[in-house]
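Lecture 7 notes: from sequence to structure.
We start with the chain below.
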Amino acid sequence: MTVTKITVASGDGVGPEIMQAVLHIMSEAGSEIEIEKITIGQKQFESGCNAGIDEDAWQSLKRTKLLLKGPVITPAEGRFKSVDVTIGKSLGLYANIRPFKSYNPFIASMHPHTDVVVIRENEEDLYAGVEHRQTDEVMQCLKLISRPGCEKISRYAFEYARMNGRKKITCMTKGSIMKLTDGLFLRVFNEIADLYPDIDHEHIDIVEGAARVASRPTDFDVLIAPNMYGELLSMIGAAVTGSVALTAAASIGESCAVFEAVHGPQTELAGRDIANPSGLLNAAVMMLHHIGQHNAADRILNAWLATLEQGCHTADFVCGGSNATLLGTRAFADRVVSNLGKLPEELTPAHYPAGAYLLPPAAEVIRAVPDSKTLVGVDVFLQWLGSDVKLLAEKLQMANSNELQLVMITNRGVKVWPNGMPETFYTDHWRCRFITSGTDKTVSNCDLIALMERVDALGLDFIKCENLCNFDDIPGYALGQGQ
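Predicted structure tokens for the same chain:
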């Protein structure tokens, strides 16, 4: 078998301990890998590397295109961005795969037949990290959803389902509220679903869906969701099936892949030899399948399952039965090694088809002819400390022109003028909508600039503006109440 080079980052907290345990098991299982070690996370931040990953580490990732990663710490200060997000977005890791499965009765679960995979879009949504403080009282985080991003993750989900013998995909969004962003995700999902008639598909509101994952996870086979929802669903699923520390994740792109446990650095457990290496071990199994070393992957997973059947566990969970044995990190890894070559007797033995976890299909994005785009107005956002909305409206109307007229003022998305309600609570953040005064009139960027100059001359503090456009005569913006 050809030796595969992989990059290894032990990470922070319990990361070095669980990584040492996992690499020991992989070596004893006969995996053919050559390791390049890098340092990312806390030590890099403390050394002055604001990205938490230096150029040498980037070069290793570009060479191997594979990373087995322990959990890392990102400082809480606002100037630092998550290392995980930086790596994922920089390497184009658009698909995040998180299986959660019941190991009942050896790990107690109210849902013993659960076997679900969450496929999470991994580059966009709120996790794009585009945030601003706009006023004294209001912060903003932009939810960015693109058609190419939706198309890539939807194609991946259906290809994954077909490749791994899955029969149904459930999409979860909140399109009833976020009609443009989540609405786009659902619309593209349905378009791609039409290309895979052999796989059933459905959509469920994310609120109902999350409740059902917690209460009836066996209803599902494959789940697909935008970034934030996908992480929440996978963590609920991990908890439902026994322990978050058992759950692994793979982030897949066109040429690179990262494999890791889903839990954090657990700094309170570091150095005590009590952390559970299972999540990272299951990530290593996913990686071995991904690179075609299926025999080693099956040997490790079967040995781990046999270890659970023997009642062996770390401190974060308890295996059932009278022979339950509490083990530390190193002893648990040694027990898995001693079980290499054994098959579980009650749990289903692992035997993955050769096609599992190969690189995803080419994420071809079919770009349609651009829609006809017409500029029809602008939302002007103000920081204003007053509370007399009528006074604000009268002042803004002085900025009206033949091209643009004030039609609405909102506060945190709630319309307060015209015909607002006195019970509405106000912050210092106001959205003021100006729209073209006639259907036959056009608005130019020069008109918008002139409007902003008039608003500024009125002594009003504008903090940003958003152009309002129609695409093929369909509004490309959320309509306000009464519009």
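Points to note: The first strand starts at residue 4 and ends at 9. The mean pLDDT is 91.
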